Each structure stands twice: as structure tokens, then as C-alpha cells.
């Protein structure tokens, strides 16, 4: 999952994107979802992002949106790091 924010510096808008790995998603109430994710900036921790499908908002730190990338393409680019992370946390994805 790629998280996205816009940063204004010296009057210029810069787009900042950062790769994270979604581990699980849980509906916590109508239109509201909690996404557990792994952020390489915080090794060994599971972080939480919130999505509201009614208001179409994404909340995680100061990131304001997110989108998914093709896992096959990511593995081709970065190797099979996903399995290593999943082993470390002993989390098994839903199939």
C-alpha cells in the first residue's frame, strides 16, 4: 500500500509517497475500517490507519490518502520481503 501526502515548502507543493505493507483490515463500525500496517520507518511495530468510506478519508500520521499496488510487481521490484515480515510478526494473511 502506498500512502500519500502533499507538503508545501517555500510555496511549492511536493507530493510525498511512502510504501507500507497492509497486514489486516477490520470493520470497526459502519463505513469505518481499521488497517493494521507495517511501516519500515518503525521496525518491529504494527501501525494503525483508519479509513472512512462515507467521508472518503484516510488517516495515518499526516498522510491523507492511500492506494494499493500489485503485489507481484512489488515482489519483482523488492524481492520477497513480505514473507519475511509476516514470519517476524507471525501474522497469517486471510486467504
Quick description:
The chain is an alpha+beta fold. The chain has helices spanning 71-78, 81-89, and strands at 2-9, 12-19, 21-29, 32-38, 47-52, 57-59, 65-67. 9% of the residues are buried.
What does this structure look like?
The protein is an alpha+beta fold and 95 residues long. The protein has 2 helices and 7 strands. A hairpin with a 4-residue loop joins strand 5 and strand 6. Mean pLDDT is 83; it is low at 91-95.
Features:
alpha+beta, four-stranded antiparallel sheet, three-stranded antiparallel sheet, 46% strand, 18% helix, disordered C terminus, globular
Order of helices and strands: EEEEEEEHH
User: Which structural class is indicated by helix and strand composition?
Assistant: alpha+beta
Distance between the termini: 18 Å
Contiguous low-pLDDT stretches (5 residues minimum) are 91-95
| Helix amount | 10-25%
Strand composition percent: over 45%
Over all CA atoms, what is the radius of gyration? 15 Å
Instruction: Name the average pLDDT.
Output: 83
What coarse outline follows from CA principal-axis ratios? globular
The profile of the biggest β sheet is:
4 strands, antiparallel
In the sheet with the most strands, the strands line up as: 3-4-5-6
The counted number of beta strands is 7
Number of helices: 2
Describe the protein's topology.
Elements lengths: L1 E8 L2 E8 L1 E9 L2 E7 L8 E6 L4 E3 L5 E3 L3 H8 L2 H9 L6
Antiparallel strand pairs: 1-2, 1-7, 3-4, 4-5, 5-6
Amino acid at each position: 500500500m502506498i500512502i500519500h501526502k502533499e507538503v508545501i515548502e517555500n510555496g511549492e507543493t511536493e507530493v510525498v509517497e511512502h510504501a507500507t505493507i497492509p497486514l489486516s483490515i477490520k470493520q470497526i463500525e459502519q463505513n469505518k475500517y481499521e488497517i493494521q500496517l507495517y511501516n519500515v520507518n518503525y521496525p518491529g511495530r504494527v501501525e494503525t490507519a483508519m479509513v472512512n468510506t462515507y467521508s472518503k478519508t484516510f488517516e495515518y500520521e499526516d498522510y491523507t490518502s492511500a492506494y494499493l499496488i500489485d503485489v507481484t510487481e512489488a515482489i519483482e521490484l523488492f524481492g520477497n520481503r513480505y514473507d519475511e515480515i509476516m514470519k517476524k510478526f507471525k501474522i497469517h494473511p486471510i486467504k
